[in-house]
Every structure is written in structure tokens, then in C-alpha cells.
Amino acid sequence: MAGSAVDPDGARRFMLTMRADGRSELFPGKVTETWGINVDHLGPVVRAKRGERVRMSVTNRLPEASTLHWHGLRLPARMDGGPHQMIEPGATWTPEWTIDQPAATAWFHPHPHGRTAMHVYRGLAGLFLIDEPGGPVLPHEYGVDDLPLIVQDRVFDGAEMAAGGVDSGTFGLLGDTILVNGTYRPFHEVTTESVRFRLLNASNARVYRVGFADGRRFDVIAGDQGMLPRPATVDRVKISPGERLEIVVRFVPGETVVMNSAGEPRKQANDIEEDDFDLVRFTAGATLRPSGRVAFDGPAVGSPPPGARVRRFELSGSEINGRDMEMSRIDEVVPAGAVEIWEIDNTTYAHNFHIHEVEFRILDVNGEPPPAYLAGPKDTVFVPKKARVRLLVRFGRYADPVTPYMYHCHLLRHEDKGMMGQFVIVEPGTEDLVPRVIPAGHHHD
Ligand code: C2O
Ligand code: CU
Ligand code: CU
What we know:
This protein is mostly beta strands.
């Protein structure tokens, strides 16, 4: 957990330092060089409550410039940590904002244009948990019955992480070795009847289908940005890079069971490589502390307002609408508070699609409503090959005509290759007055 201090004005201050000198023991007796935020590998959990002001102090001790993006946070564009908020080596960036969104499992990672894949692969990623007083009663004892599971695939050359695949191939790196929370072959001892897992796929490209070796069913309670309309009982969930899912799993005393990932039975259904992996081995104690059943009613999906604006994004190869990302070009101008339909049309192989700042719901995938476990508020969605995905997108109210937010494929090689676009949120009625080119030399720190 990241330590924080409360400033005299009441803001909660977090100090984060990105460093490249981590030394981790992933394999017994061997040293692996890793990057980390405050720690040797990955980062601390940042945790804040709705309504709280947070003040970040992000120092770059890497040998190169980077950024730190708050993936899943609703905040002003200048605080977003995208490619326009570069932090030079040795410099410190100090964004602050007020947490104004429901309880969720969000995360943070670097976002330097063209270098994100490498920085995340080296180990720069951490969880950002948002709490909201007064929500449904859920397992919430961190480390006991509320456990994060950050899933990543790696390629090792001896004890060293091999990064050669990060910038090559159709999808970039697809590793053959799984790390969960930065640990190789993790196991965990369960002490309660139910455990809530916060799953984050922080892999560069790999898609997982998470379930249990014994086929047990479990409840999905939350998606990227918070609670589902109601728990969805499933035996597997698909999770693509950048997505989060919260699940509640029941255990019986004395058992051992493996959480795993199983490839799509229709092989190559999505043409992205899907392999079988063990993720975590659980052993349950001889007696387990009783847990209540999870039940709640969350916000419903809602339907598009009449006349909602539709924007269409065609994915082809690693381009969006036939273009590569251009740092000085504003692709879309959105009025503050808008609710729009974004239609993602994939003409080629599998991708996914992430939009900064917003909350969206999946309206349909190839005309069909998504499975119940994807009915919650989201910010990242898997887009199977040749599929059409329609999103109902709710935009925030922080207007800034000169600082863009990003939308992009979260397969990091694609993002780095330019499968990304930029939008600004502006005061309603000023859309046509906004320059589509970011003024030269315009930089926020
Ligand atoms: Cu997870 Cu644009 O980021
Ligand atoms: Cu993001
Ligand atoms: Cu892609």
C-alpha cells in the first residue's frame, strides 16, 4: 500500500518514484532486473476515497522520459498522464484532482508515445483503488479476503526478462511465462469462505480466459469502472489488456484449487494466440471464516438518449480511421457532459479499445448484447477480429480545448505504432471554435 500524508489543506499526498534499478528474485537464488514505482517491481497500491482530493508527486528516476497515466480515473486532461505530460529524467510531475467517481479498481502505468510497451513490460504498473463509503457489503479486508491479481506474461532468457518481442510481430510480445503480482508460480492460502479478487490484465497483448481448473462457478461483481447492475455467475471470464474485473469466489475447507486461463475452445476464434496457463494455486485452511453471500443492485446500463451523436472508428491493421496517431492533431471534439455512441468497426485482426476519462457501457457486439459480466461500467473493451462493438459513452465535464485525452488499442505494440487518437472535451457550443491543431510549443507540466 502506498503511504500517503494529508497536507494542511486536506489533500492526500502520494509520492511515487519510477525507477529502473529494481532487483527482484523471481526465481529462487537468481536476480532479475526489473523496473518499479517506489519498489523494485510493479508499484504500491494507491488507495483513495470518493470526494477526497489527491495530490501526486511523480518523480522520474528512469534513464529516459516517461509519463504516469491514471487508467480508469475521471480527471482533467492535464492531470491524465498521457503522452502530453512527459516527465523528463530527474523531474517531478505534480498533478492533483478530486476523486469523483464510484468505487472501482483502476491502475496506473507509463504512457510515453512509442515507448509504453517497453516501460510497462519492464515492470511499471500499479493499482489505484477507489473506495466509496456506503456501497454494498463485500469482502474488503485487503490481503485477506480482498486480493489484487495483476496478471502479466513474460519471456525469460535465463533469469532476465527478454524484451525482444515487445516491438515485433502482429501483436507484440506474447510471453510463455506468467507472473501474478510480479510473482512466478504464486500460491495463496485462503482463510475465508469467500474471497474477492481484483483482476487486472497488465499484459502487453495477451488475452486471458480466467476460471478454475475444477470448473467451479463464481460471481463477477464489478467491471473496469465499478459495480455491475447485479452479480453475474460464470465459470470463465475473458479479460484483455487494460481491463479489470472483480470476482467473488467461494472455497471449501481444506481444498486445493488452481485459478487458470484456458484458450477459447474454438481455436483461433480471435486470431490472437490463446494458450492454457495456470495463474494461482490456492489452498484453503481446515476451517474458514464465514462470509456472507454477495447481493446488490448497481446502476443499470441505461439506453442512449434520443439523437445521441454517433462517432465511428474503423480499426484496420494498426490504424484508426486510416490514420496513425499524431501528437499535434485533435481528432475529435466532444462537448462536456455528452453521452454518445461510439461504434468500433474492426476490419482486421483482434484489438481492444480504451478511452481515457470516460465511463462506457457495451451496447452490443455484432448486434448482440454482451454477456452479463460485461454489463458494468467500463473503459476498455475487447474487439474480436472483424467485429463491430457499439459503446454508450459518458464524457466528463472538465473542459480544456488544448489538452487532449487519448483513445487507443491497449495492445501496447499497436498503441506504440500509433493506433491511437486524441479528443478534447470543450464547453458545449464551442465545438466549432476549437483549433484542431495543438499550438506549437504548447506543453503542460
Ligand atoms: Cu492504460 Cu491510454 O491507457
Ligand atoms: Cu487510460
Ligand atoms: Cu490493436
